[in-house]
Amino acid sequence: MLEAIEKIFGEAGCDTVYADLNYVKRDQPNRIVRRWRSGKFSKLAIRLGWMPPHPTFFVRRQVYERYGLYRESLQFSADYELMLRFLYKYAVSTCYLARTIVSMRTGGLSSKSWKNRFLANREDQLAWKMNGLRLGLFTAILKPLRKLGQFF
Fold this sequence. Notes:
- By secondary structure, the chain is of the alpha+beta class.
- The chain contains six helices and four strands.
- It has a single domain (2-151), classed as Alpha-Beta Complex (Spore Coat Polysaccharide Biosynthesis Protein SpsA, Chain A).
- The chain has helices spanning 2-12, 43-47, 61-67, 78-89, 114-130, 139-146, and strands at residues 16-24, 32-36, 58-59, 94-105.
- Strands 1, 2, 3 and 4 form a four-stranded mixed beta sheet that branches.
- Helix 4 runs parallel beside helix 5 (114-130).
- The two termini are 25 Å apart.
């Protein structure tokens, strides 16, 4: 898997690479409950609530050095803010590896409860503001809705 990421970085010269992810049951890691097929990146897709799965997101060191690290002040959305900053605000180059490279167990902090999901959505909106970006009219609504298709 890492060889495929390295190959894309080398051949395509991208600043970031992302791929697909499967969510698996916490107590049954062989049982897939949600398939996150990322698809190709576009700035419009971000405005329509898209983001790549953060555990599949690889970044060249120079990008971190130039545009900064994770903002640890965000409890739920540090990964979203980072990808928004890199891909949308600074438009670093990115490549999509159309392959599942991560299986992640369900039950993370942001999806643990409806309250946490709500707080994460508010932090997502804050991420736009922190970067001096204008949140799209439907971005906050579409981001959680886009995930519904991953269950089928």
